[in-house]
Amino acid sequence: MRVLHLGFEDPRMPGAGGGSVRTHEINRRLATKGFHVTVLTTRYPGWQERVEHGVHYVPIGFGTGGNRLSRLVAYVARLPFEVRKRRLMADLVVEDFFAPFSTMAAPLWTKRPTIGVVQWLHARDKARQYKLPLHWIERLGVRKHRRLIAVSQGIGDRLKELNPDLHVDVISNGVDPGVWDNEPRLGKDVLFVGRLEYGHKGLDLLLEAWAQACERVEGNLLIAGTGPDEERLRASIQEAGLSERVLMLGWLSGDKKFQALSDARLLVVPSRHETFGLVAIDALAAGTPVIAFDIPCLREIIPPGTGWIVEAFDVLALADEIASRYSQTGLEHVAEQGRKFAAGYNWDALADKQAQAYHMALTELNSPQPRRPQADHTERA
């Protein structure tokens, strides 16, 4: 099968999110099965067209893609033209949803069978932030799709609310095999890993909680990542008087990221919104227990015994959880349970599920009389 993947972010771009990791891990495995995959992404400083692990990456846009806004605008402007050039060489188009409006309603203009992969569905929150009706674009786009792949059951349920006629396959993210190369250890520090987006990732809540917890914790808070709110975060750390207890590690990837996960005592995921929570699964695989807010997608991947779920956005509860779990005995057992659970998130098996979903989509979307979905089509993979 020839796949044209509208992937938005390149996994090599500094600060790229977990969505680009998923895109690459699935596509590289599809390539070994004989799929021919081309991924269109935004440009960024140092971008280059390349073939990596059998996957052809084509950054599109204008200039160097020096900032986030220029990357977004150039990608949106160029994408229909670039798809038009390549669509005769594609059997299936795959649209990755992306911020700030999720979907460009690709089935309307690709003129090829098109399926969406939904790793981001937060346009309503962006609408509040920017005072623009971005959630209406999201709603329209979801209704133009007939088949979608969601990375969690919570996202699948929300998609069905927007479009009851959808067929949704739930195919989760997986654990990077490199995580297993490091031996877990009971470390000293508390870790956050992720894109530095102040509100979305709950960094304001994390700093408030840490200010209350740090006197009861021996180690420091380590923050790994880059993003649009890095300077704001640094200023907030200084204003809160936490400069001696919060260390910024910058962008970590590969072995450095896995080592940081293995060395941490706890990982904290204070996000207000997530579609999956890839870093949480990676941490469990690394043998590091996770503390997170009780939101649907994180609730799915942190079962009892592998970490702890805190009432959503309760700063005092988060602070108390960090302090009490940091010093509790038996963390090694929690780490062991987390590793066992994470072992089920295998990229090879997930790629097989995605290949099957692509073949089924191609068959249905090429049919002149498409079969209408039944009452409940959400399938868990």
Describe this protein's structure.
With 381 residues, the protein is an alpha/beta fold. It folds into 2 domains: 2-174 and 347-380, Glycogen Phosphorylase B (Rossmann fold); 177-342, Glycogen Phosphorylase B (Rossmann fold, 3-Layer(aba) Sandwich), CATH 3.40.50.2000. Helices cover 40% and strands 18% of the residues. The chain contains 13 helices and 15 strands. The chain has helices spanning 18-32, 68-86, 123-130, 134-144, 153-162, 203-213, 230-239, 254-263, 278-285, 296-301, 315-327, 331-342, 347-365; strands spanning 2-8, 36-42, 50-52, 55-60, 92-96, 114-118, 147-150, 167-170, 190-193, 221-224, 246-250, 266-269, 290-293, 307-310, 379-380. Strands 3-4-2-1-5-6-7-8-15 form a 9-stranded mixed β-sheet, sandwiched between helices. Strands 11-10-9-12-13-14 form a 6-stranded parallel β-sheet, with helices on both faces. β13, α10 (296-301) and β14 (307-310) form a beta-alpha-beta unit. α3 runs antiparallel to α4, α6 (203-213) packs across α11 (315-327) and α9 (278-285) packs across α12. The longest helix has 19 residues, at 68-86.
